[in-house]
């Protein structure tokens, strides 16, 4: 994104200058608030699905879309060899300031050359695919970053609940091309706006089909409290 809205807000919070909220505008004609202090939470304040994912991490770990580095710091303190990756230069700087030893400032699709035992994509990190039609490319690339016996841990949500339901238990989804979990967002902070960007929320069954089509197994590790879930993907042998 041309404007590094999230990086600016993370930087301001860490520097003690955070006095405005990050507003999220979505394609559902809704506004939401991204609580930046939440990105600095410790393990005890993390959702159960995130805690479970962190406990399942093994070996060398690539924390994709690391943000302020809270997951990386926890894994590092556990003794794991973790690398924090984010496309935001300011987020990566804050990770280093907070004590993350290994960082990479790069978009995941541009990153290559190193393989890991665990790829971690939390807070709906798989959303970076943007659209369902682009998920295959992302899964193939992620698979290329795995060592033998490696795993991809990710959480996402089935956002069908955001649409109106009928008496028969079905849902009214507006006529439009594409998958209902495809969203567009725009961030706003201190009068600056990001470019509009695509983001993907994917139901588990659709994820499983996409994973299998790209030579990855897909295991439902755990369901969350509200249409969210944690999945583990591994190369098929």
Automatic annotation (TrEMBL):
Any Pfam family: Methyltransf_23
GO biological process: methylation
GO molecular function: methyltransferase activity
Keywords, alphabetical: Methyltransferase, Transferase
Top-level taxon of origin: Bacteria
Protein name: Methyltransferase domain-containing protein
Organism of this sequence: Poritiphilus flavus
């Amino acid at each position: 994104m041309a404007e590094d809205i999230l990086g600016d807000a993370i930087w301001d919070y860490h520097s003690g200058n955070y006095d405005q909220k990050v507003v999220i505008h979505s394609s559902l004609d809704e506004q939401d608030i991204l609580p930046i202090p939440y990105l600095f939470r410790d393990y005890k304040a993390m959702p159960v699905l995130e805690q479970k994912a962190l406990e399942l991490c093994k070996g060398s770990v690539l924390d994709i879309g690391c943000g302020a580095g809270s997951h990386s710091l926890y894994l590092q303190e556990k003794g794991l060899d973790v690398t924090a990756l984010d496309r935001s230069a300011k987020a990566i700087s804050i990770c280093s300031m907070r004590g993350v030893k290994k960082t990479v400032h790069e978009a995941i699709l541009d990153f290559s050359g190193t393989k890991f035992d665990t790829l971690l994509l939390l807070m709906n990190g798989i959303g970076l695919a943007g659209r369902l039609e682009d998920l295959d490319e992302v899964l193939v690339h992620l698979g290329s970053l795995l060592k033998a016996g490696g795993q991809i841990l990710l959480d996402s949500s089935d956002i069908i609940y955001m649409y109106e339901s009928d008496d028969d238990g079905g849902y009214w989804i507006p006529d439009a091309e594409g998958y209902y979990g495809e969203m567009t967002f725009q961030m706003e902070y201190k009068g600056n706006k990001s470019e509009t960007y695509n983001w993907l929320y994917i139901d588990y069954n659709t994820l499983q089909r996409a994973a299998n089509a790209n030579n990855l197994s897909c295991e439902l590790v755990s369901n969350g409290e509200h249409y969210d879930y944690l999945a583990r993907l591994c190369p098929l042998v």
